[in-house]
Amino acid sequence: MTRQAQVVLITDADSPSGKAFIQAFSAAGAKLALNSPSKGAAIGQELDAARSFGIGLFIGSADLTDSVQANMLLEEAEQELGPLDVLIHNDDAYMPALIETCEEQTFLAVMDANAKTAFVCTQQAGRRMAERESGCILYLTSIHAEKPTGSSFAYSSSKGAVKMLSKEAALYWGRSGIRVNTIEMGPVEGASSRFPSTMTTLYDNYEYKVPSGKAGRCEDAAKLALFLCSEEAGYVNGADIRLDGGFLLHYMDHKMKRPRPGDRQ
C-alpha cells in the first residue's frame, strides 16, 4: 500500500481469511476497523501482532444485516481512526441446501449473512466514501458465484448476488472515485469437507486438480487484496479476479498432479 495509514474495515475478522487480512494490512501500516463476532476474543494473537506495528485499531461487533448497527460501527470507527478508505467484505456463511428440500428459513439465513451484509456495508461505506470522492470496496467471494457447489444452492446464489452487487456499485460509485472489485476464492485446505456433495465430484482430490498440485491459502487472498486496495491498482474497477490456482480449468482426473514417491508432504 503506497498511501500511508489507510483506514480499512474488515468484516468477519474472526474467520481464517479475516485473520490473514489483519496480518497483511497491519504489516503494511493500515489502521484497522474490525467487525469481530467474538469481540476480539478469537483474534487475540493477530491483535497482538497488529499492535506491535503501532497501528490504530478499532474492534466492533455489529450485526451487519442491520443498517443502523452498520452505520454505528462505521461512525465509531471513523471517530477513532479517521475517514474510511477501504471496505473488505469478508462474510462467508455456508449451510447445506438442496433446491428440493431447502427450508425457506435456511435460504434467507444464508442470503442475509452473505448478500444482505454486503449490500448494507456497501451502502453505508459507499455513501461516506462518495462524499470524499475516494475509496475502495473489495469483496472476498467464491468461485461458486458462477460454479454450482452441488451441496448448497443458497450459498452459490448469495455469492452470485454479491458478484452483481459489485458490478452495480462499480458502475454507480466509480463516478465518485470509488473502485469496487471481487476476489473469487477457490478451494483452500479443508474445502472437501465444507462442500460435501452426492451430485458432483468437484472436490474429490481437489488439491490435485489444481495444476500446481497445491491448495490455496487465505494468505494468497490477503496478498492480492493488498494490491487491489493500493494506488498501483488505481485503474482496476468492476473486476472479478478468480484466485483458484487454475482449479476450475481441470477436467481430466488421470492428469491430476499427484505426489510422486519420495515427495515431501
UniProtKB/TrEMBL annotation:
SUPFAM superfamilies hit by this protein: NAD(P)-binding Rossmann-fold domains (SSF51735)
Write down the Gene3D superfamilies for this protein, in alphabetical order: NAD(P)-binding Rossmann-like Domain
Q: Which GO terms describe its molecular function?
A: oxidoreductase activity
What keywords would UniProt list here? Oxidoreductase
**Which InterPro entries does the entry link to?**
NAD(P)-bd_dom_sf, Sc_DH/Rdtase_CS, SDR_fam
Family indicated by similarity: Belongs to the short-chain dehydrogenases/reductases (SDR) family.
Query: What is this protein identified as?
Result: SDR family oxidoreductase
Species in which this protein is naturally found: Paenibacillus protaetiae
